[in-house]
Amino acid sequence: MCTPVKGRGRVRLNVGGRMFETTAATLASAGRDTMLGAMLDAAWNNSDCTVAADEEEYFIDRDPDCFAVLLDLLRTGSLHVPPHVTDRFLCREALYYGLLDAVRAARWGPLDGDRLCLAASVPGTATGDGTAVRAAPDGGLCVAHGGAVRVYNWVLEERRPVNLHHAPVNDAAYLDESTLLLAARDRPGGGGGVAAFSALTGDLTHRYRVSHDRQVRPFTPGALAFDPHRGNIFASCKGRFNEYGIGVWDSTAGEQVGFLYEPPGCALGDADKLQWIDGTGTLMAATMFPRTDSSFISLLDFRDKNGVAWSWSDVGTPASSMEDKHVLHAVAMDDGQSLCVINQYDDLGFLDIRSSGNASGGVRWRSRSKLAAATRKKQKRNAPPQRAHGEEETCYPKLAAHGGQLFASTGDAISVFSGPDYVLTSTLRGSDGAGAICDFSIGGDRLFALHDEVNVVDVWETPPAPVI
Amino acid sequence: MSSQKKRTLKIDAFKHKVEADPKFFDKSWKKLEDAIREIYNHNASGLSFEELYRTAYNLVLHKHGPKLYEKLTENLKGHLKEMCRSIEDAQGSLFLEELQRRWADHNKALQMIRDILMYMDRTFITSSKKTPVFDLGLELWRDFVVHAPKIYGRLVDTLLELIHRERMGEVINRGLMRSTTKMLLDLGSSVYQDDFEKHFLEVSASFYSGESQQFIECCDCGEYLKKSERRLAEELERVSQYMDAKTADKITSVVDKEMLSKHMQRLIHMENSGLVNMFVDDKHEDLSRMYNLFKRVPDGHSTIRSVMASHVKESGKALVSDPEKIKDPIEFVQRLLNEKDKYDEIISVSFSNDKTFQNALNSSFENFINLNNRSPEFISLFVDDKLRKGVKGANEEDVETVLDKVMMLFRYLQEKDVFEKYYKQHLAKRLLSGKTTSDEAERSMLVKLKTECGYQFTSKLEGMFNDLKTSHDTVQSFYANLSGDTDGPTVSVQILTTGSWPTQPCTPCKLPPEIVDISEKFRAFYLGTHNGRRLTWQTNMGNADIKATFGGRRHELNVSTYQMCVLMLFNSADGLTYGDIEQATAIPHADLKRCLQSLACVKGKNVLRKEPMSKDISDNDTFYYNDKFTSKLVKVKIGTVVAQKETEPEKLETRQRVEEDRKPQIEAAIVRIMKSRRVLDHNSIITEVTKQLQSRFLPNPVVIKKRIESLIEREFLERDKVDRKMYRYLA
Fold first, then answer.
1. Does domain B543-637 have CATH number 3.10.580.10?
2. What's the topology of domain B650-729?
3. What is the pTM of this model?
4. Where in chain A is the domain with CATH 2.130.10.10?
């Protein structure tokens, strides 16, 4: 039994003709920088005495059905969308009230590799093979196909595609949710290089140039990386005149701030993966098979004159111990103490970066579990027929680390490894018949896997925690 | 993030509305413009937020974002220009108040305008990377109000003027100052820095440069420092009251530079009140102020330190080289100790026990104490004095503290071996004459020396103590053996190990027959119990108690062995010439003279009468038994006239002995070094030897060279055949 208390903290809203009654606290929980928060703020309500304010009703000229969903979100923190309310509709209304971030946060939870569900598939439309998929910080994504990059927002609606004179794209990276960086191959007529685009409008906003001896030179960027704390952009660069190395730019000023020429014995300009490692303040540059016969991984410290702080290479490793294993991909682990590598037999290996590269005893290989091996065979068996006669296309395995978990794409599945020893805990297998995964990316609490065959992108997310 | 939906929605919107009403933008904007005016006029109560929000939303939705933004900018400019005029019109002190009032209004209005235009902030502005509405309002305020030509200069001048007045002691409205500087900070830290802080620092620099000039002309050093300290505290307080915390370091560095750095030399060397005077007058408070203030100045502490070091050296040098002051060794050492105490206190009280200052003090003391080569002797004499009468007025703890302090001085000595020599002599005297008052104090001094210099240094001194103890036992067992035969004098023999004691070879004097008898018995007893030893009598060091009768009055005389021999002669004769005495006793000339002097010439203790009466003893004098001798005391102690301090020739002799003793030590060091190094050049040997020996003394390179030559002669070493500067060890 409740004592009926008149008014106190209660708010009456008339939304598009339907009456809602809620508390000021519920509406204020949306935040001062939302429409509802501002509407109830003292600045807009200082007119008459408070009793009158209680009597007052606020009129909002919007759709009541959608408001009901959003009010429920404010009341409970969870999102329940009736079937007749579409995503577009909901998002438009949420944007009006300034609640879009709240809607997104309620849609999926923090990424946990072991609780991932296939949420959607984005069909591929481009011809040719996708080279890379990249996750935006807000849950959007982009897919690089040949000479263009297709951009999707987090509702997975497509935006304007981005291209740099349709030059083949080698890598893409998000600087923030609205800025996309592209690395495109240099061609005789010019047009390649590194450029930033607005992910929202698709407009080119800045081109990052490389100068050697104060002269701007064309170059082909390979891989991209971004250090969000200092705002530095890195790209592996191959110049036309054998200027190989890593270019560094300041993302806000847009100017080149350095160029680390590749020292003898280090492959930097060819690197196919760059990764900024925050804990150590270094950049990992990995050049791997099949681009080169032997793999070379180094950590670059740009505060140091010498540049190369740590390096490892399989050159000169006795063939017997190698068993012809090629390192195909590498990723720096979250702890900033080790690197993980993978070979063509899907073996995982670890490198300790706290002690010097080859001296540390090289790669500690770990044999994979049988499950993973079986996966691979099964995938081969199930491979669509056109694949059998077709061109010998191989999708090399890829690695990613997130939240203490390790993700590895092998064939058409992604394996998730957890715990201090990285034991296999989950296998993600998505769209049927989409073929092998040629790239995947984690960001904005989502995992995107780009399938080779039909260029479909599977979207994996962690559903919100169950109610009970 | 989300503008994409905006685009898709646009298509819908186009279909029904926009084309239909060409005046759509103007009408909508009019509504917003009116609302903004009402907001600025504090008349917002009639406005409907929802309606305004919806209006702005529709404008952005229909692609009017750029136009809306532009109109808004213009509109804000208009309002700001109006505000600007009213601020400009404010007179005098009302200026700042008006500025603040308007700033508060503007802030509040901006907040509401931003609320209305929130949708534009979220969509149009993010995608076009323009300045958000609120920040735009601040920027415009900065450009059109703060930087308005009629306001800018006035604002800065007003602020600086108020600060100046506060510095001169007036009370100003700090709340207003605080809100004004906060406004500048809100506009961005660069605005605060460029438009206020920069000028503030400049003006402060010139203010303090002028004020410090004025102070330094009319204040003494202590007063000046007091004023600087107060100014520093004031500035810090000012910053905490109404400026950005980051200004604190900047303004204090200005004050440091203007008031302290620039005048540091002059302050430290100020006549009659500078650093040296503070030391002399023990101005602890001023000193600690100076220490704390000059900590802030580059080279501040090192300057204080070097002035202190040179002052200590200077005054110490004067102390150790003043012939008046070195007359009394006890006084001399006491002065050193007082000096040390004084500076120790200054460092602990005023210089927060700064290690670097302690080191500087130590090296200065080391420097001047060693200027006088009699320091080791004097320090030993001082210890002697303390240990002789130590317990008399003072308790043991006091003696202990005095000894500890003396050890400090001892540490400064370079010629520790010389000290050892003297200490041994003085200790021997104390022990043999039974004048040590406290065995414990003696032992504790030994322990201190041992911890300071190692076992080697004190082993002989410890030997001396052991000798005394065994002697005591030996004499007891001798008398136990001799039971029955107790007639005649008793002897107490102290058997001194040769080498442990500072004995000089002396020809024994002729002892009176009674003594000879008993001492021969002792010799027989001792040699009987200890095989293969030799016993020689050191008659110059003993003493004796004899009973004598003067005209019926019985007295007990405490005399030295020599004096006893002389007095015993008078048992058989009343008068003897100097020659007779010398012949009968065979006492060395100088000693005999000294002992006769003390027997005949000291008033109240003249048991002998001399003819002719004079102060000095000459070879022709005759001595008579003085039956008129009287004394109130039954026991009379007849001291020998001893020079406590060494006389010049004695000093030379000691020095020579020390030099002689050093030779084997230097040689041993050289051999040790060469044995391990095999081949070494001359300079390295010198350095190594000096390093090895410096805990005992500072060897002279010339002496080392001589020792090396001597070793080459004796074929311990050889010169390299090619490089004559290299030496080789010959195993």
1. no
2. Arc Repressor Mutant, subunit A (1.10.10)
3. 0.69
4. 117-461
Check: CB of residue B31 under 8 Å from CB of residue B79: no
Q: Do B699 and B690 form a contact (C-beta atoms < 8 A)? A: yes
Is residue A307 predicted with pLDDT exceeding 50? yes
Size of interface A-B (CB pairs under 8 A): 74
Q: Which CATH fold would you assign to the domain A10-107?
A: Potassium Channel Kv1.1; Chain A (3.30.710)
Question: Among the listed ranges A253-257, B84-88, B274-278, B628-632, which one has the minimum average pLDDT value?
Answer: B628-632
Element (H, E) at B500: none
Q: Kind and range of the H or E element at B538?
A: none
The CA distance from B697 to A284, in Å, is 62
Considering only CB atoms, A201 lies closest to which of B45, B54, B127, namely B127
Judging contacts by C-beta atoms under 8 Å, the chain B residues touching residue A198 are 127
- Identify the band that residue A367 occupies on the pLDDT scale cut at 50, 70 and 90: low
Q: Is the ipTM of this complex over 0.85?
A: no
* Residue B546 at interface with chain A, using a CB cutoff of 8 Å: no
Does B115 sit within 8 Å of A38, measured CB to CB?
Answer: yes
pLDDT at A226: 93
Mean pLDDT of chain B: 83
Domain with CATH 3.30.710.10 in chain A: 10-107
Cβ(B716)–Cβ(B671) under 8 Å? yes
Which among A96, A153, A154 has the least Cβ separation from residue B119?
A96
Distance CA A82, CA A66 (A): 9
Q: How crowded is the C-beta side of B654, counted as CA atoms within 13 Å?
A: 22
Vertex A140 angle, CA A135 and A145, to 5°: 65
Q: Å from B134 to nearest chain A CA?
A: 12
Q: How far is A356 from chain B (nearest CA, A)?
A: 39
In CATH, which of 2.130.10.10, 3.40.1190.20, 3.40.1190.10, 1.20.1560.10 is domain A117-461? 2.130.10.10
**Chain B, 54-73: which have a CB under 8 Å from a chain A CB?**
54, 57
Q: Which residues of B touch A44 (CB under 8 A)?
A: 44, 47, 49, 112, 115
* Cα within 13 Å of Cα(A431), Cβ side: 24
CATH code of the domain occupying B17-146: 1.20.1310.10
Does the structure show a pLDDT above 70 at B448?
Answer: yes
Q: B296 to each of B246, B252, B253, B256, B302, how far by Cα in Å?
A: 17, 9, 8, 7, 12
Closest Cα in chain B, distance from residue A58 (Å): 8
Report CB contact under 8 Å: A96, B118: no
Residue B102: pLDDT over 50: yes
CB distance from B12 to chain A under 8 Å?
A: no
Sequence spans of domains, chain B: 17-146, 543-637, 650-729
Residue with tokens 């309500």: A45
Quick check: B5 contacting A, CB < 8 Å?
yes
